[in-house]
Design goal:
The strands form 2 sheets. A 4-stranded parallel beta sheet has the order 2-1-3-4, with helices on both faces. The protein is globular. About 40% of the residues lie in helices and about 15% in strands. It is an alpha/beta fold. Helix 1 crosses helix 8 and helix 4 runs antiparallel to helix 8. The relative contact order is 0.17. The protein has 9 helices and 8 strands.
Length: about 325
């Protein structure tokens, strides 16, 4: 009798808190999918790695595995790196069928979770500042994939319009532009009394902490503006519901990943040279390398998604706007 299991594929982090938050999300997914065995693993930096989770499911007799990317948007990790790991495993164990689900994407549940986090921050802020005098700054992770970057801007627009804020802006923690500090400095010149900074991230980590640090830096230079730091998504119940929904989509045949604007399939302005690039992972050197100080000693590599897009490391295709004056360096302590 065939058995179906679920594999949650995370990115991984050298921040132990982020790894713990991912584990909490995996537990929440298990609670929502009681009829399946659910395993989880990471692409890089932390253990167990994705292969470990696949091994555990296979060893317990699962002949079909539903793999879901634990990521908000489909950029290089969801489109190339995780599929490469899954395809390699599938080739080694052809008796196991692996289906790959889509990323969380722009979803009403995710927007609900985001709205709840922003409301949470506003509830603790100065209640005399009206929303029309408030600017919303949504901070995305940033990628060398314009499709993923544009999704962050769409999330910002829907939250901005839904809340009725006076203005909305988008910036990114790395790879693309504008980065957080220049983005906030620009926003501060627009004349709003309050700026709400919302990291549209699933988990904490080096980047989220630096987003808040850069917010504090700009806030110190603009004491006339109230800066409010909203919490990231984390294990909000609606996030967990969305993950469970992605698994159900694979079973019902509704698993549709948006490839209309994928830079690997269509000619997107500025990224024409990347159409048809082979699907391959660039993370073998950091797979399961570990978190915290152990990682620092073993592999002195920030990897907050600078990714060498302008250093041409890792084998990634160069980002066409690598020398943009407002980015796309990833947030690092050395970048004042």
């Amino acid at each position: 009798m065939s058995k179906t299991g679920v594999m949650v594929c995370g990115h991984g982090s050298r921040d132990e808190q982020a790894v713990g938050e991912f584990d909490s999300v995996a537990r929440g997914i298990r609670e929502r999918l009681p009829h399946y065995e659910v395993e989880s693993g990471f692409l890089e930096f932390a253990r167990p790695v994705i292969r470990d989770g696949l091994d555990r499911l296979r060893s317990r007799g699962h002949t079909r595995i539903l793999a879901v990317p634990g990521m908000l948007f489909a950029a290089g990790h969801a489109k190339n790196d995780i599929p490469s790991v899954l395809n390699t495993y599938q080739a080694q164990y052809p008796e196991v069928a692996i289906d790959y689900g889509r990323e969380l994407a722009i979803d009403s549940k995710l927007l609900g979770a985001a709205a709840a986090r922003i409301e949470e921050a506003l509830s603790e802020a100065d209640d005399t500042v009206p929303r029309h005098e408030t600017l919303l700054m949504v901070v995305g992770r940033g990628a060398s994939d314009p499709d993923a970057n544009s999704n962050v801007a769409k999330v910002m627009r829907m939250l901005w319009e839904g809340f009725g804020f006076g203005w909305g802006e988008t910036c990114y923690s790395g790879v693309t532009f504008p980065l957080v500090q220049p983005g906030l400095e620009h926003a501060a010149r627009l004349g709003y009394r309050r700026i709400v900074v919302f990291p549209y991230f699933l988990f904490t980590g080096v980047l989220v902490k630096r987003i808040y640090e850069h917010t504090d830096r700009v806030a110190a230079a603009h004491p006339e503006i109230e800066f409010v730091k909203a919490p990231y998504l984390k294990d909000h119940p609606l996030v967990l519901d969305s993950f469970a929904e992605r698994v159900d989509e694979m079973l019902t045949g509704e698993n549709l990943m948006n490839c209309k604007l994928c830079k690997y399939r269509e000619q997107i302005i500025g990224f024409e040279a990347e159409v048809g690039l082979p699907q391959a992972s660039h993370h073998h050197h950091v797979e399961g390398v570990g978190t915290g100080s152990a990682h620092e000693q073993a592999h002195d590599h920030d990897h907050s998604h600078d990714h060498g897009h302008h250093h041409h490391a890792h084998g990634h295709h160069p980002y066409p706007h690598a020398d943009h004056p407002l980015g796309p360096r990833t947030l690092k302590k050395s970048h004042a």
